[in-house]
C-alpha cells in the first residue's frame, strides 16, 4: 500500500519563498483588521478539523485567538508582515514548520479546481517547469568517476519522470554517487520514492503512515519500476543543509536509517509529517499536516529535529568533503587504482583545511625554473605561471602544494642552502618531473638534462611508469 501523498500541489513547492508570502503583482493589497480576523478564524477551523495532532491544534487555536484579541496583528497590514507573524506563532505553538499560511490567488484557484475534480496544470505552470528543467540542476561525473546529482525539488512524476530516470541512468555508470539535496525543499512523495527506489531492493519496508481523516495506517514499501534496472550498489553520499526540507529529508532519513547512505552537511529543517493545502479565501491558503509517519528502523521521524548528518560540515564545504570520502572509499575497494584514488582523496581533504606554510618557505620557492616556469609571490600566496596561464598554489604540508584547478599533480620545492633548488611535479601515479631553478642551473657547469617534449614536459623514458600518461593534459599551468 502506498503512503499518504505529500503536499499534493507541486506548484507551491516550486515557487520561491517570497512568492508564497506575497500575492502576485496587482493582488498585493493590504490586509485590514476585518480580513485578518476572517483569515485567522478560518485557519483555526481548518487546523482543528485536519491537523494530525488534535491537542496541538487546540494550542494553535488558543495562541491565535489570544493574539488576535490583543491586537497583535492589527498594525501588520502588509501581507508578508502579517503572514510572517501569524506563521511564526502557529509554528511555535505546534512545534511544526509544515504548518503555515500562504498568499497566492493562483494557488487557491488550483486547489479549488483540484477539489472539483479538475486541476490540470495551466500552460504557465508547464512553461515554468520546462524553464527550470524540472529543478534538476546538475548531473555529471567528477574526479574518480564519482557521480554528482543536484536536485532542488521533487516535481510530480508525470512531469519530471523521464528526466529523472535519464539522470539516474547516467549515474548508473559511475563508481560512487553524491546526491545534493542542500537546496531541496521537498515535493511529491511519489517522486521522492522513485528516486529512493534506485538504492533499495524492491519490497523493502521503509515505514508506515497514519492519516487522521481516514484513521488508516498504511505500510510504505519500495516499489521499483519494471524498467529501473539493477539496484545501485555503489557508495552513496547525500548532501543536506538547513534548507533541506520535507520529502528531501525523507529521502536522506530513509537511506540513512537503512545504512545505505552517509549524510554530509548540517542538520535539516525538521519537517516530517506530510499534509495538504486548504483554501482560506480567494487569496490565502493554509498547509496543514494530516499524516503521521514513522520510519521502519527508528520507529520515529525527524519532525522538529531534522536529519542529523554523520559528517557535520558547512554546506559550502559539503561537496568537497563528500568527494574526499567517496574517493577514499573507492580506494579501499579498488587495489588496481588505489594509488590514484588516494592521491585525489588527499587533495580534496587538504582543500578543506589549508595549512599555513612555514615562515620563509614561500619566499624560498619564488623564482624562475627550466622550461619557462615561474613561481611568483602575489597577494601573500604563491602563483604558478607558465606562459599565459596562472594557478594559485595552496600549501598542504611536507613542502607540497596543491595546484588550483588540477587534481592530477602537485608541486614540491626541495630547499638547498635556503633556496628552492628545483620545481618538482608530483604526478598521481607516483612518477615525477624535475625542473631546475634557473639561478641554480647558472651556477652549474654541466647538468645532464633529459630532452623536453614538444608539450614542455620531460621525456619520461627513464622513469618507472605505473600508468600511461598520454591521456593526461600537458603540464601548462
Care to describe what's here?
The protein is α+β, with helices and mostly antiparallel strands and 477 residues long. Helix content is 33%, strand content 23%. It has 14 helices and 22 strands. The strands form 5 sheets. Strands 13-14-15-16-17-18-21-22 form an 8-stranded antiparallel beta sheet. Strands 2-3-4-7-8-12 form a 6-stranded mixed beta sheet, with helices on both faces. A hairpin with a 2-residue loop joins strand 16 (389-397) and strand 17. Helix 4 crosses helix 5 (79-94), helix 9 (189-196) runs parallel beside helix 10 (247-257) and helix 11 (315-333) runs antiparallel to helix 12 (338-352). The relative contact order is 0.10. The model is unreliable at 1-27, 443-456 and 458-476 (pLDDT under 50).
Task: Using the coordinates above, name the CATH class of the largest domain.
Answer: Alpha Beta
Whole-number radius of gyration?
29 Å
Helix/strand-derived category reads alpha+beta
- Summarize the biggest pleated sheet: 8 strands, antiparallel
The name CATH uses for the topology of the largest domain is 2-enoyl-CoA Hydratase, Chain A, domain 1
Question: Keyphrases for this structure?
Answer:
33% helix; disordered C terminus; 2-enoyl-CoA Hydratase, Chain A, domain 1; 6-stranded mixed β-sheet; 477 residues; disordered N terminus; Lipocalin; 8-stranded antiparallel β-sheet; alpha+beta
Structure in a nutshell:
The protein contains 14 helices and 22 strands. With 477 residues, it is α+β, with helices and mostly antiparallel strands. The protein has 2 domains: 1-353, 2-enoyl-CoA Hydratase, Chain A, domain 1, CATH 3.90.226; 355-477, Lipocalin (Beta Barrel), CATH 2.40.128.
Amino acid at each position: 500500500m502506498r503512503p499518504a501523498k505529500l503536499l499534493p500541489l507541486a506548484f507551491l513547492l516550486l515557487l520561491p519563498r517570497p512568492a508564497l508570502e506575497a500575492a502576485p503583482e496587482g493582488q498585493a493589497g493590504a490586509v485590514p483588521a476585518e480580513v485578518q480576523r476572517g483569515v485567522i478564524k478560518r485557519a483555526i477551523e481548518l487546523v482543528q478539523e485536519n491537523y494530525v495532532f488534535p491537542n496541538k491544534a487546540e494550542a494553535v487555536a488558543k495562541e491565535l485567538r489570544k493574539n488576535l484579541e490583543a491586537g497583535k496583528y492589527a498594525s501588520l497590514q502588509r501581507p508578508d508582515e502579517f503572514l510572517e507573524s501569524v506563521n511564526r506563532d502557529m509554528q511555535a505553538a505546534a512545534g511544526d514548520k509544515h504548518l503555515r499560511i500562504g498568499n497566492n490567488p493562483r494557488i487557491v484557484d488550483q486547489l479549488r479546481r483540484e477539489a472539483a475534480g479538475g486541476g490540470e496544470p495551466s500552460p504557465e505552470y508547464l512553461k515554468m517547469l520546462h524553464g527550470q528543467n524540472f529543478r534538476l540542476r546538475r548531473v555529471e561525473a567528477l574526479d574518480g568517476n564519482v557521480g554528482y546529482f543536484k536536485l532542488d525539488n521533487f516535481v510530480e512524476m508525470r512531469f519530471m519522470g523521464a528526466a529523472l530516470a535519464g539522470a539516474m541512468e547516467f549515474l548508473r555508470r559511475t563508481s560512487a554517487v553524491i546526491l545534493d539535496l542542500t537546496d531541496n525543499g521537498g515535493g511529491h512523495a511519489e517522486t521522492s520514492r522513485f528516486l529512493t527506489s534506485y538504492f533499495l531492493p524492491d519490497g523493502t519496508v521503509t515505514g508506515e503512515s497514519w492519516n487522521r481523516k481516514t484513521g488508516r495506517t498504511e505500510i510504505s514499501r519500495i516499489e521499483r519500476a519494471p524498467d529501473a534496472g539493477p539496484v545501485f550498489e555503489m557508495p552513496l553520499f547525500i548532501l543536506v543543509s538547513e534548507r533541506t526540507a520535507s520529502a528531501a529529508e525523507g529521502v536522506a532519513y530513509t537511506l540513512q536509517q537503512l545504512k545505505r547512505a552517509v549524510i554530509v552537511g548540517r542538520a535539516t529543517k525538521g519537517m516530517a509529517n506530510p499534509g495538504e493545502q486548504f483554501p482560506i479565501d480567494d487569496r490565502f491558503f493554509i498547509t496543514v499536516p494530516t499524516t503521521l509517519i514513522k520510519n521502519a528502523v527508528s520507529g520515529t521521524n525527524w519532525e522538529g529535529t531534522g536529519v542529523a548528518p554523520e559528517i557535520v560540515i558547512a554546506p559550502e564545504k559539503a561537496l568537497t568533503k563528500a568527494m574526499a570520502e567517496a574517493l577514499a572509499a573507492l580506494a579501499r575497494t579498488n587495489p588496481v587504482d588505489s594509488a590514484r584514488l588516494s592521491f585525489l582523496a588527499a587533495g580534496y581533504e587538504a582543500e578543506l583545511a589549508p595549512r599555513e606554510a612555514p615562515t620563509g618557505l614561500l619566499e624560498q620557492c619564488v623564482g624562475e625554473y627550466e622550461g619557462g616556469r615561474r613561481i611568483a609571490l602575489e597577494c601573500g600566496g604563491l602563483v604558478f605561471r607558465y606562459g599565459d596561464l596562472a594557478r594559485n598554489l595552496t600549501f598542504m604540508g611536507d613542502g607540497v602544494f596543491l595546484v588550483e584547478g588540477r587534481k592530477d599533480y602537485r608541486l614540491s620545492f626541495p630547499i638547498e642552502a635556503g633556496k628552492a633548488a628545483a620545481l618538482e611535479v608530483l604526478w598521481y601515479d607516483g612518477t615525477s618531473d624535475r625542473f631546475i631553478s634557473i639561478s641554480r642551473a647558472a651556477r652549474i657547469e654541466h647538468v645532464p638534462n633529459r630532452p623536453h617534449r614538444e608539450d614542455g614536459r620531460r621525456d619520461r623514458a627513464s622513469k618507472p611508469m605505473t600508468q600511461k600518461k598520454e591521456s593526461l593534459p600537458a603540464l601548462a599551468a
